[in-house]
Amino acid sequence: MTSDHSARVRAYRRGLVASASGLAIALTLGIGAASAQTAPQDEEATQVDEIVVTGFRGSLNAALSIKRNEAGVVDAIVAEDIADFPDLNLAESIQRIPGVSIDRDAGEGRSLTVRGLSSDFTRTRINGMEAQATTGGTDSSGGANRGRGFDFNVFAAELFNSIKVRKTAAAETEEGSLGATVDLQTTRPFDYDGFTMAASAQMGYNDLSESYDPRAAFLISNTFMDDTFGALLSVAYSERSIFEEGFSSVRWAPAFGSGSSGGFCSPLGVTPQNATNNTAAGSSAANCATGIPRPANTPGNVTAYNTANQNSVFIPRLPRYGRLTHEQERLGVTASLQARPREGTTFSFDVLYSKLDATRQEDFLESLSFSRNAAAGGQTQIIVRNAVVENNALVAGTFDNVDVRSEQRFDELSTEFTQLSFTAEHEFTDRLSGRFFAGRAESVFDNPIQTTVTLDRQNTQGYSWDFRGNPNTPVIDYGFNVADPANWSWRQIGTATPRSEIRIRPNGVTTVFETFSGDLAYDATDWLTIRAGVNYKTFASKSYEFRRADETVVPALPAGSSVASISTLLTGYGNGLIPAGVDRSWVVPDLNAVAALFNIYCNCDTGVPGGDFRLASITNGNARGGNRNVEEQDLAYYIQADFETDILGMPLRGNVGVRQVNTKLLAEGFSSIGGGTPVSGTNEYDDTLPSLNLALEPMEDVVVRFGAAKVMARPQINNGLSGANYLVPTTSLNATGPNFTATIGNVLLEPFRATTYDFGVEWYFAPESLLSFAYFYKDIDTYIQVLRQDLPYSDLTALNPSAFAPGLCTGVCSPSTIFQLTSAVNTDGGPLKGFEVSYQQPFTFLPGPLENLGVILNYTHVESEIDYCSNALCTTFVTDDLAALSPTAYNGTLYYEDDRFSARISASYREAYLQNVPGRNGNAIEGKQATLNWDMAASLNLTDQISLTFEGLNLTDEENHQYVGDDSRQSTSVYHHTGRQFYLGARYRF
Considering Cα of 386, then 389, then 395, then 401, what sign does the dihedral take? Predict the structure, then answer.
């Protein structure tokens, strides 16, 4: 090789190490050329005219250049313009990448799944360091994030200028991912040439809530002292106000037997009798409960009872309609200082700050008897007058003695994310360079107000539901005028169940990452670079929760007060969703009026019966599990060889290396004995992670890739959807009902481990164009599963005599009471395999204006066979898909772009997927149905500096549709929609 060629090779390698930001911004500002896609040409090559590509096409071109030049499998998205990302939400941008799907909360992208692996298996790095952002979500979307996943809705998309998704592992890349490593990069001043400024403003409109919401962004950057020092500041602000409306059931459960709430009341003389004789509950041969006689022994009553009261028949636990009102305010700030005191030396200091403040008000009209046992005045009091069963589901029925509730829950939610990072890059010689990094990222999530208040009505007659023809939005007749306050009660302390409730549950979680790393790169020869480095990282996650001692007792209304004075009327419910015959207005509690009347936030005992509003955490058995601390120390070092050579005249580049990792874990919490006994546990494990990445160019514009690696992902802290505790070695116990639960943590869980293989072919057949195929195989040989089983309390005592001592089961709890025990265990896992196909091309070959059209298409198919334990000892298994894996996903974008006008429409499809295996309440599975989301965007350049923008999101008002059941029965548990969102605005750039 010539010396000139050697110098160019070394420069090329150093360029790949640098951030993609400079390339992305250069292209999007029109500084780069389309020829940047192609491989570096020899200096003597014939020059061609420069083709300037800007805007959306420029961002696509920049992303292709990043993908092509990487040694591993990498996909990227870059900003279209200064502070202008292709989508309004980071997660929704990333879903355009092949193999990436997203989960939404309140209609907004929140978390990622990459190649079938959920956010628990995907690491996110911001400006080069691992970080975690946590928010609070609805219960059906997992609630507050207390695990390892990253919530992308914390950040405004305008704060970032590039995203990389690394799908194959390399020794130099931090461990912790089975799916992918997502790199988010904010903008730096050296990304621009001198002074740069941009601003945008938009006004949004949601057609369901009929609300208007502002959105704005601003960036200013400059370099000084002959471009040796630079400073940048960017700010993004937005508001969002939406309704989320629809039907939910809080899952389905067997009507009778194991997993049920006790079964329905049998008619007179029917054997076996249900409920059985119980003096305390008042059930006897003549009565379902005190004051509730059994139905007559008529053919109709007996047929209805026998049809419904079967263990194989499933019923909705809390069938309800609801409106969730979401208010959101998001502020994001980035700042960056860079210095280049000499050629080859750069110092960067980056700050990222985001504040997400939100409120959520949930108003539900529900029947609660179907999920409550005899002690709570529940299902055993219900008389079935009519029943229709289809596919093992009670799809239609008429019932007497049903308790109906109007529930309002109000949450104040706040996430504050702060990251500080310092990077020093230095070239010691022509061949030796180094990089030092130090950073700290903190995410503080607080839910200081989480309060629920209920109004109730006992033993309603003639209640009915009908799912026939409306499996997702049933016709529910409550049997009375739900909009009249006189038909509702405030059921104070001393009354029979159901009693009205005041639940106060403040909670929060703080996560902190601290990272220190050092890397060296030595160009050993003209074709070989040796890299080595060390990385030390600490992770801490600490959560808290408080609750009242007894949430099911409330004070009596004082003289002069009534239900009318502590309630309001919800109106206008169900636009575009519910069938005819469903109530569109109902009485809801007025939380502010209740709070003022009873002084519920005093954290005191007000001195009146039912008025004890003191909050406890560790000493409260129902809150205790929310108080825990997890700390990790991770030390890793690696060595890696990067090479670039020729084989039989074909260019070959890649890397091979090994990473050694040590993980030390401390988990602390409080167990159920002694009013909250501190417990802790430790674990330590080592992983050796070899990796190989090859990129061969057998012919011009064709890249063939191969990758192989051993990878690991550390155990989850907890499962947000099911609430299961994974790591903290505590036991928790809810022995007060109506739902009796217990958990056991397992600090000795081994991490997820897998061996991965990747093969791909990429054909860059024309400028800005790509046709590619990628196959991947992951042999997951260590998996973690939530094991859930129904056991009598006596069995719990035998399992752990101190944590589940007989003395902890009193009152409504007895040794025969069935508890749902939840624990996490390691299992053998199984294989995951799939392929991706991508096609991208501008139609420059078409005549006239059609040459400004272009298309982006990708398709992903994934299969998995995970062995799940189906009994306590894991001696029997059921094989099913990996949770959160959609077998099929695809994305498509059709765009048009000329010098003045740009428009595109995008579709994103995700096939149905599992959320929990096995499911809760006797269901084999829990899952989410397929989604197809349509979005569009357009812009018009009025001048070189000013443009008008219009964007539309969720154009078809796609529903969030979750279900429970098995392979044949998929009963709706959530069916909500949030409306269409539109934005009209303007951008200015200088």
Answer: positive
